[in-house]
Structure formats: C-alpha cells, structure tokens
Specification:
Blueprint: H1 17-22, H2 25-51, H3 56-60, H4 68-75, H5 77-97, H6 121-177, H7 179-198
Helix pairs in contact: 5-6
Region (Disordered): 1-20, 152-204
Protein name: Chaperone regulator
Biased composition (Basic and acidic residues): 153-188
Length: 204
C-alpha cells in the first residue's frame, strides 16, 4: 500500500466575491427559470407559426421560383377563390388606410413614390392578407374550442343525469329488497301497541 507521506494537500482555490455571486443558488435558479421561460416562449412561437397555413401566393411568390405547396393549394378552385377574396379584402383595407376607394387603380399617385413610401402597395397587401388569414384561423380555433367546451359540458350533463338515474334505480331496488323487513317490523309494532292498549280491567 502506497504511503501518503510527502504528499501535500491540494491547494484551496480562493473564492472571491465575484465567484460567490456566480455560484449563488438563488441566482442560478433565476437564470435557469429565465432560460426555461425563453425556451418555452420560443417553442410557443414555433408552434403558433406552424399552426397557420402560409398564404399560397406568398409561398409561390410569382416573381421568384414557385413552391410545390402553393401550386397544390392554387389547383383547388375553392381555396383559390377564398384566397382571391382575402387578397381583395386586404387591398381594400390598405386603400382605405390611405383614404382611397376600393376601385382605385394601382398606379394612383397616392400609391406611388414619393406619396407612398416603403413598403409598397403589393407588400402592404400581402402583409394585410396574412393578418386576415391569421385572424380567421384564430377565430376558427376559438370557435372550435368553444364548441369542444360546450360538447364537454353537454357530455358532463348527460353523464351526471345517467349517474342520477342509476342512483335512483339502486335506491328503488334497495327499497324493494327491504319491503318484507319493513312489513314485518310494522306488524310487530302494531302487536305491541294492541297489547299495551288491552291491559287489566279496573273494578269500580
């Protein structure tokens, strides 16, 4: 067995005030919680973005290379009609913001530089269309959630009604099962009552 003689203990590292602050438990907890919160927020943003279908025209971006998903969406006449209506509504809202009627031409002086600065009309319409699509999706999801809540409440009501009917049926069954015992007890009670009333006759 090797001897420990001659070996010096490992030098202790001095922890200055900065080191103590770095390894403070409360500070570490705060940092970890903050990091976890940031990760959760980032995951929530990713989840929300993934929940929405992008504007097919935005994906297709007619001035650049086409996207397969956009082409699939646009091949559906119903979806294309809905999208066209959304873009028309978006354009109308953008025109209203600058004080123009919905039938104002794209080359109107208020829609061209220097009257309209960046972003240009096309970009503003695309942004507004995306807002409309997201608002519609959120409204649809809220309606679905309310429907699910209502359906859950109705299911709970039916479940409670079924439980109540079952409870009453069990009570009726127990009542019927104890009928003979109640009749027997009632007869015994009447017999005792008659005996008490009969008693010895008193001579006058």
């Amino acid at each position: 067995m090797a001897s420990n003689k001659g070996k010096q203990p490992a030098p202790k590292l001095d922890q200055g005030p900065d080191d103590q602050l770095l390894f403070d438990d409360k500070e570490l907890d705060r940092i970890f919680n903050q990091e976890a919160s940031l990760v959760q927020r980032e995951q929530e943003v990713v989840r929300v973005l993934a929940a929405f279908k992008l504007n097919p025209y935005d994906i297709l971006d007619l001035d650049h290379m086409p996207g397969a998903n956009a082409q699939i969406e646009l091949s559906d006449s119903t979806k294309r009609k809905n999208l066209d209506e959304t873009l028309q509504d978006a354009r109308m809202l953008v025109l209203r913001e600058v004080g123009l009627p919905r039938d104002a031409p794209d080359d109107h002086e208020l829609l061209r530089p220097p009257k309209m600065r960046d972003p240009d009309l096309r970009e503003r319409v695309r942004r507004k269309a995306k807002e409309i699509i997201i608002d519609d999706e959120l409204r649809k999801r809220r309606l679905q959630k309310m429907t699910m809540i209502a359906e859950g409440a109705e299911a709970k009501r039916q479940e409670d009604a079924l439980a109540e009917r079952k409870r009453k049926a069990e009570e009726k069954e127990r009542w019927e099962e104890t009928r003979e015992d109640r009749v027997h007890d009632w007869r015994n009670f009447n017999k005792k009552k008659k005996k008490t009333r009969k008693g010895p006759e008193v001579l006058g």
